[in-house]
Amino acid sequence: MPKLQFDKARCSTCKAVSCLTKCQYLSLDAASAKKEWQKIINGEDSFVLEACTTCYACEEYCPHGNHPFYMIVDRQEEQGILPSPRPIITMWVNQCEPVGKFTVGLMQEKALSYCFLPHFNALAHGKLFEDIEYSVIFGQEFFCNAVYLHYAKTSLIRARLPGILDNIRKQGIKELICLHDECYATYASLAPAYGIEVPFKPVHYYEYLIERLKSLKGMVKPLGLKVAFQRNCSTRLIPQMDAVLDDLLKLIGVERIDRKYDRKNALCCAEIFRMGKGPDLADDVQKRNLDDMQASNPDYVVFNCPACWDSLAGKVAERGLQPIHIIDLCKLAIGEEQSLKLAKMEAEV
Ligand code: SF4
Ligand code: SF4
Fold first, then answer.
1. Which residue of 4, 34, 37, 60 sits with most ligand 1 atoms within 8 Å of its CB, as the best mutation to test the pocket?
2. Could you tell me the residue ranges of all domains in the chain?
3. Distance from the CA of 271 to the center of ligand 1, in angstroms?
4. Which CATH class is domain 87-208?
5. Residue of the nearest CA to atom 6 in ligand 1?
6. pLDDT tens per residue, range 15-47
7. In terms of CATH architecture, what is 218-348?
8. Atom of ligand 2 at shortest range from CA of 25
9. pTM passes above 0.85
């Protein structure tokens, strides 16, 4: 079974221990953080393992390229700590098990991954995708499995991921454009952290959109909009993509508002907290985030992750704000319509 490649020696000389001191859900000074982190490295019990909300952010907070969050999840599993109730974990384990039913389109060497999310069937059409829209993989056989990081199940990821990667390779795919941020995070961060070889080139859809929009240059009309960005948990595994998002927004004339809960201080959709820690924390995090979005007075609230969309887009709309997925924002810039909408928004059209 692949093992986490973790540099323990780097931690022993790390004074700031930012993986834990920057955590938004723990309150630890550097000395206590060092003590707790050492216990975690040693495989001893630490309250951090129970308290962790699985927000993923410590992966980004470590400035040394170590993998503190993957280490936490490994240790939670070893110690039998369940970040969510067992029936929910079991449901996820069973629901996403590969069953040999391959859902694929007209495959080319370059393909789109819908992951396990039907939202992309609405989003990934039109001029931006016209050369590639039917070269698609979807479903359990291609599901990245990163969600199990929320359920203390790295063993399941390590067991299933090599087979998933092989399923993708067997479609003849050389370049996979990941429409779900979490898939790209799996292939660019999680798999390498466990020494799992990825037999194709993963491409984040931000990068794809930048290239596509450049090739459609004559059609792009700067939007002149200000937006609040909802930063999802998996962005913490691939923080290098945050600057790529800035480039993409610049290309379509969109300003990302500098609000309190974006970038390193972002708040995730918090629905995973509802299951693991209860409604009080989830409601508090969502309220702070929505209040902050509202105070920033955006033209749109922009989503990257469909799971965030499902959790928050309705609540955003209830506040009189307009939710939109990044792909749809790019469509607006070339004169196309928003394709992923809430039922309420459809009814208003
Ligand atoms: S994981 Fe990173 S931030 Fe945490 S102690 Fe180790 S080197 Fe420092
Ligand atoms: S995953 Fe989030 S809650 Fe857990 S230790 Fe890391 S930063 Fe804190």
1. 37
2. 8-78, 87-208, 218-348
3. 27
4. alpha beta
5. 11
6. 999 999 999 999 999 999 999 999 999 999 999
7. 3-Layer(aba) Sandwich (3.40)
8. 3
9. yes
